[in-house]
Each structure stands twice: as structure tokens, then as C-alpha cells.
Amino acid sequence: MVLISLKSTLGGASGSGGDDGFLFETTASTPVDDLIESLVEIHNARVRSRLIIDSVKDLALYGIMKRLESVGTDEVCLFLVKMQIAFWFAAVSRQSHHRSAQIEKGPNYIADPSRERSGNPPDAQMAEILQREVESLEAYIDKQQVQNKIALTMDCIEEKINNVRGAVAMAYPMGLPEWDSARRVIDDSIDNLKDTNLGSSLIDAKDAALWTCNKEFLRGTLVSDRIGSCNEKTKVIAKLTRKGAGPPARESIISEAERNAMTAYYFQRQEELKRLAQADEDDYLNSDWADPKGMKRNLQGLNDLKTSSLMF
Question: Where is this region: Disordered (predicted)?
Fold first, then answer.
């Protein structure tokens, strides 16, 4: 079983930057075209899952979305047209009067900070179910699964999306309005999500290229043609790019944790050198290595003596 560790080269795929990715299991005898198609499918499913997570979380907290004309305020203007005939006018005049009315607020009303939703979430039990299913989906597609050595499968992602869809159907048996973003990302296909804020992260399998070690997996060949036929038990770090984009950027030799450790060490060393520069010339005499009797005590085993408490 060949383990593919796919790292993202498309910004915004998960809001995690360039360190995002997932694991995928395949075989050395798998055609490269099938491998790319499977990787792209999971990549796009993770992008779609991010949209589902954000929308359903807002749905559980603030309820369904308002109509476009009501977005931005919790007060709607009702326009009443009155016909008034004045005896000193020979014509009929129309006058519009504005009267404000509050949107109906339920017992669980919470004002939406973005003012896009009604503020009437489902009851606490249904909201908890929505949150639980969304968190399960979020945990499964998280980049931490790479550290946990859990390979993703399309079947599991679809199963968790279906669980979220079922939870939404339980919370709203009559269905969500057609203008609600949660309904769109759950029911629509990947192709209909390209105009969203994460649409630029979606890629087409026909326009994708797979790279590893600055070498491209050539279409029409097998995985074994790139990694070797005897390497069935191996791990490959790969990246997806679009055709014509060339090889992706090389991985940094130093990891972020190592870079932070080096920065902390050199800062500590710099501070130590500053203290030495300000110290007196004979300050070194207080060091252990400058003790003229230190070697004698060490040979006699007197350096590590511990005196127990004395009683008088």
C-alpha cells in the first residue's frame, strides 16, 4: 500500500495556509489518471466541507438566512399606499407612509452580528445535534489527520456530509429557504460552488498535475513508473497543481518548529554575550572551571556531597 501525503499548493483551500493536506492510500499498480482523479475529488470535497461547516454552524447559532432585501437590519419597512382624495385637487394623489415593524423574535433569539440571518436558531437539542455532526465532519477533514496517520476516503466524507444533511432536515423539517447558503452547499454539486469565496480552490481533474520530488506523475502511466515497482510499502509527499503551472515550490529544509527553536537559541546567546561584555574582567573567577581546588574535590568525590540536617 502506497501512502500519498498530499500537501496543498492552492491558497485558501482550508484557511490553513500552505501546511494543509491529507493522506490517501493507493497501490503501485494504480493508473496515474485514476490517482489524480481520486485526489482531486477528495480535495474538492474538503473545500466543500469547509463551506458546509461554516454555513451550518451559523445556521445552528442564528437560524435561517434573511431574504436579500431584509439583510442588514432586524427591522423591515412596510410600505402602505393610501388613496386620498382632496376636494381642492381634481386628481388622485398617492402617498407612501413608512411604518417599522420588528421581525418576529423566537424564544431563542440571538442577534446575528453579520445581520444576514434571522437570529431565531432551532431549539437547544437540535442545535446541539447540528454542532455535533458539523464538528465530526470538521475533525475528519482536518489537517491534523496527517499527524494521526489517518488516510481519508471519499466514502467517509460523503457519509459525514449526509449526517449533516440529516441533522439539518431534523432541525428544519419544512426545509431551508432557497436563498440560504447552507441549503446550497449541502444540496448543490461541486460545479455550482465555483462562484463562492473558496471557488478558486476547486480544481478540475482534467486540468490537474501531480508532482513529487520535483518530478511529475505522467498521465497514461502507473504509479510504479514513478516510485518503482518494488516500493509497495512507501510514503510519498506529493502536491497537486494546475497544468502548465510548472513544478511546485520545494519544501523548506527547516521546519517552523526548528526555525522558532533556532531563533530562541540565538536570541538567548545574544543576550548572554551582552551580559559578558558588561561584566568585570575578573568575573570569570566565580565560575566552577576557575576554581583551583575543583579538580582535587572532584577526584576525592566531594563535589556532590549533601549534608543532612544536623540536630543539636
Answer: 102-122
C-alpha span between 185 and 61 (Å, rounded): 17
Rounded to whole angstroms, how far apart are CA atoms 129 and 138?
14
Distance CA 1, CA 228 (A): 13
pLDDT per position as a tens digit, 200-211:
788 888 889 999
The owner of cell 386628481 is 91
CB contact at 8 A, 32 and 219: yes
HSE-CB at 190 with a 13 A cutoff on CA atoms is 18
Question: Which value, in Å, is the radius of gyration of the alpha carbons in the chain?
Answer: 33
The answer to whether 73 and 115 have CB atoms below 8 angstroms apart is: yes
What is d(CA 65, CA 114) in angstroms, rounded to the nearest whole number?
A: 11
Question: What are the tens digits of pLDDT across the range 150-203?
Answer: 999 999 999 999 999 999 999 998 888 888 888 888 887 777 777 666 667 888
The structure's pTM equals 0.71
CA 166 to chain centre: 23
Q: What share of the chain is helix, strand, coil (3-state, %, to 5)?
A: 45, 15, 40
Q: Under a CB-based contact definition with an 8 Å cutoff, are residues 193 and 48 in contact?
A: yes
**3-class secondary-structure state, position 176:** coil
Quote the CA–CA distance of 244 and 145 in Å, as a whole number: 30
Cα dist from 304 to 223, 286, 290, 308, whole Å: 62, 18, 18, 13
The DSSP letter of residue 178 is T
CA distance 243 to 36: 12
